[in-house]
Amino acid sequence: MKTVLVLYYSRHGAVQKMAQLIARGVESIDGVQALVRTVPEVSTVCESVKAKIPESGAPYVSLDDLTQCDALALGSPTYFGNMAAPLKYFIDSTSKQWLSGALENKPA
């Protein structure tokens, strides 16, 4: 079974709804499953602002989710032409995976 990581950040729910629809489309393909994950908020004052497990919605993504998936679908609102800081913060933390080649050949 192939796994597509549907990773998103959504402040007001619109991107979350789109991620759920993408996951539904992914799972309509035989032999493919969707793994829906989100990222926690970040803060300018301290690194950790959310509990380890979200109160509702998709679980937070882990580096293992990223290395074990076969493909990625990333979603974020844009702010001044950039992705949201929480998603960028997570992607910035994946240097080790990129440099080791763990993310090679994963369509996104």
Notable features of this structure?
108 residues, alpha/beta, two-stranded antiparallel ribbon
Summarize the structure in words:
It is a single chain. With 108 residues, the chain is an alpha/beta fold. Helix content is 31%, strand content 21%. The protein contains four helices and five strands, in the order βαβαβββαα. The strands form two sheets. The chain has a three-stranded parallel beta sheet. The longest helix is centred in the first third of the chain and has 14 residues, at 14-27.
What is the element layout, followed by pairings?
Layout: E1 2-8, H1 14-27, E2 32-38, H2 63-68, E3 71-75, E4 78-79, E5 82-83, H3 85-92, H4 95-100
Parallel strand pairs: 1-2, 1-3
Antiparallel strand pairs: 4-5
**Terminal Cα span:** 18 Å
Structural class: alpha/beta
Please tell me what the overall shape is. Answer: globular
Task: Please state the average pLDDT score.
Answer: 91
Structure, briefly:
This protein is of the alpha/beta class and 108 residues long. Helices cover 31% and strands 21% of the residues.
